[in-house]
């Protein structure tokens, strides 16, 4: 019976549960869940939304700076050279006999040259 003497008796178990619950209720703050949600929202902004906005801003600047002779890549994976620019459309030369008119927004980026790689 010496091995079982460390187990609480039913009387001490009944008194210890309310004591533990009272300590758990009094120790916390009602503000902490809102703080955690706020920190989570801030982390989401800095890790997901802010980089996406920066990428969109640089893409818009690249589209605004397009000029004749730029080598571009479309979102469809077509490489071409800009030959003419209208308001929201761009004419690109894909091959000697192939010319396309595409939306300016469908240009993914400028073609990387060997010097930049």
| General shape | rod-shaped
Quote the distance from N terminus to C terminus.
78 Å
Tell me the number of strands: 5
> Class by helix and strand content?
alpha+beta
Low-confidence runs (pLDDT<50, min 5 residues)?
none
Please report which band the strand proportion falls in: under 5%, 5-15%, 15-25%, 25-35%, 35-45% or over 45%: 15-25%
Integer tally of domains: 2
Task: Please report the number of helical segments.
Answer: 2
N to C succession of SSEs: HHEEEEE
Strand order of the largest sheet: 4-3-2-1-5
Q: How would you sum up the major sheet?
A: 5 strands, antiparallel
Radius of gyration: 32 Å
Q: Tell me the helix content.
A: 40-55%
Mean pLDDT: 82
Which structural traits does this protein have?
5 strands; five-stranded antiparallel sheet; SH3 type barrels; 2 helices; alpha+beta; rod-shaped; 2 domains; 117 residues
């Amino acid at each position: 019976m010496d091995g079982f003497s460390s187990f609480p008796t039913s009387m001490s178990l009944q008194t210890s549960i309310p004591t533990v619950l009272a300590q758990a209720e009094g120790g916390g703050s009602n503000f902490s869940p809102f703080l955690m949600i706020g920190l989570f929202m801030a982390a989401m902004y800095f890790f997901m939304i802010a980089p996406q906005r920066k990428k969109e801003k640089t893409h818009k600047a690249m589209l605004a700076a397009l000029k004749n002779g730029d080598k571009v890549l479309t979102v469809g994976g077509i490489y071409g050279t800009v030959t003419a620019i209208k308001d929201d459309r761009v004419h690109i030369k894909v091959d000697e006999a192939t010319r396309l008119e595409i939306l300016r927004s469908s240009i993914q980026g400028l073609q990387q040259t060997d010097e930049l790689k």
